[in-house]
Amino acid sequence: MYEDFVRDRITQLRLKKGVSEYQMSYDLGHSRGYIYNISSGKSLPPLSELFAICEYFGITPSEFFNTKTEHPELIQKALDGLNQLNDTDLLMVLGLINRLSK
Fold first, then answer.
1. Spatial contact of 52 and 28, defined as CB atoms under 8 Å apart
2. Per-residue b or e along 76-91, where b marks 16 or more CB atoms closer than 10 Å to that residue's CB
């Protein structure tokens, strides 16, 4: 069950990013069939490689396993930016979010 989730999630994120299995394998420094073997159920990535895959997609491992967030890479970029703001600016952004979400 968890194995299927990992395979499906990698495929989902890869398709959203618009890269082929071959390109992703190459970008991660593996042979051309690496991601295909994961997607087809022949293998699973070790934990260290799962971290590299998360980094490739610009998400945290927590975001990898959270399927409720539609655009985890954008949420992470927003959080990175928010962490650099002072309290006044954070309150201003929060007000904007509240206004837009109505």
1. yes
2. beeeeeeeeeeeeeee
Taking the chain (102 residues) in consecutive chunks of 10 residues, what is each chunk's mean pLDDT? 91 95 97 95 94 94 86 85 94 93 86
- List the CATH code of the domain at 2-100: 1.10.260.40
CB 92 within 8 A of CB 80: no
The dihedral through the CA atoms of 37, 4, 9, 6 has a sign that is negative
Model pTM above 0.85:
no
Q: Is 101 helix (H, G, I), strand (E, B) or coil?
A: coil
d(Cα 73, Cα 54) in Å, to the nearest integer? Answer: 10
